[in-house]
Amino acid sequence: MPEFTPTERSRVRRRPQRAAYDEATVYKVLDAGILAHVGYVLDGQPFVTPTAYWRKGRRLYWHGAAASRMLRAVGEGQPVCLTVSFLDGFVLARSGFRHSLNYRSVLAFGRARLVEDLEAKRLAMDDFIERLYPGRTTSLRPATEAELKQIALAEMTIEEASAKQRAGGPIDYAPDEGWPAWWGEIPLDQRLGAPKPAGLAAGAAPRVALEAEAPCAFPF
Amino acid sequence: MPEFTPTERSRVRRRPQRAAYDEATVYKVLDAGILAHVGYVLDGQPFVTPTAYWRKGRRLYWHGAAASRMLRAVGEGQPVCLTVSFLDGFVLARSGFRHSLNYRSVLAFGRARLVEDLEAKRLAMDDFIERLYPGRTTSLRPATEAELKQIALAEMTIEEASAKQRAGGPIDYAPDEGWPAWWGEIPLDQRLGAPKPAGLAAGAAPRVALEAEAPCAFPF
């Protein structure tokens, strides 16, 4: 099973038993997410920008306006940490100290570049739409050259990545025994609401791939 | 209405019509969140760590193990960017270019310190439990001194913050007219699942305050 090789940068120190570095685990988390938090540094100041992203093989993509400060900064090849996380539930113990949260997260490290080629941009934006709404691109009005020029597209090859997760209920803890508090697990999930058509929308609302079932069709 | 004064660091450049700097808007987003993404810099490398947080007045708190690299780093007073974001829905247009997402987000900037006083730590951890499960602390086994010493608690006074949000459906766009694609909005929400008691849990599961109704009882 291919693995990312952790260095000091990506090795999980706290609770290493919850960590994984294999591509399958890392990609499973990355493919389930829609919003990432992109961390970058400008003049020593960290910035964390939430943004939609998608994966293709070992590469992560995100986009925005050509004038975006974040995209200009990461496009210069500065180091980036892109983090994806899910809060999966609440873990309640009989002492505050033993409460916890269930989660999945990935920290991906690399350097980004801006993709300038218009055809590559067009294909990448189609990948993004297909990631969210499988099969949708064929019914859409195609992007014009002027529109593609307004988009800045960042591409980051993952140099290192680590996954970390916790699942399950609270762990029995002797000092808490006998305390009359409820203990257990309360799951948390994301749910889609009823679609709200705009004007006279044609046909049924498309399916949103909240958790991408299959990785992009790209060798990795 | 009190406002954070934006500088170059926190002023929203892209789509400034979606931005706000008043405390009421910023705190409303911060008080609805449970996971933050804490950005910090170590030797020029950005790190973005997902972590639970809570707010009291103009201060943000998060905690972890005393040995945590993140907490040691931010405890040295380096600049921090703490970001909270929600994906509230999908906005589908009749061209890929005009698709969007509905979201709420806050970027909060400041420098953190580690709280060492054990009594202050105890009170802060109680605030955290009460934030998530109102009324729960009274039924829990109190923390011991040894447990409080194992916790590192970061406190950051917000120096600057900006909120940004988008809501509503797609905006009508002349070039898309007549394209036979569904367009509209598909909301996304977080829902709690059925509680899973551990062993013989006492009574009913506590209520989780998924979106905190009231700010902490602290003057701001």
Compile the SSE list and pairings:
Two copies of one chain form a homodimer.
Chain A: E1 19-20, H1 23-32, E2 35-42, E3 45-56, E4 59-65, H2 69-75, E5 79-92, E6 100-115, H3 118-132, H4 145-150, E7 151-166, E8 184-192, E9 196-197
Antiparallel strand pairs in A: 1-7, 2-3, 2-5, 3-4, 4-7, 5-6, 5-8, 6-7
Question: Quick summary of this structure?
Answer:
Chains A, B: It comes from Phenylobacterium soli. Chains A, B: This is Pyridoxamine 5'-phosphate oxidase family protein. 2 copies of one chain form a homodimer. The radius of gyration of chain A is 20 Å and the shape is globular.
List the keywords:
homodimer, 220 residues, Pnp Oxidase, Chain A, six-stranded antiparallel β-barrel, 4 helices, 9 strands, 17% helix, Pyridoxamine 5'-phosphate oxidase family protein (chains A, B), Pyridox_Oxase-rel (chains A, B)
CATH architecture of the domain at 16-167 in chain A: Roll
β-sheet strand percentage of chain A: 35-45%
SSE class of chain A: alpha+beta
What is the CATH superfamily of the domain at 16-167 in chain A? Answer: Electron Transport, Fmn-binding Protein, Chain A
Strand and helix order of chain A: EHEEEHEEHHEEE
Summarize the main sheet of chain A: 6 strands, antiparallel, barrel
**The top level CATH class name of the domain at 16-167 in chain A:** Mainly Beta
Oligomer: homodimer
With strands numbered from the N-terminus, the spatial order across the biggest sheet of chain A is 2-3-4-7-6-5
Organism (chains A, B): Phenylobacterium soli
Pfam families (chains A, B): Pyridox_ox_2
Protein name (chains A, B): Pyridoxamine 5'-phosphate oxidase family protein
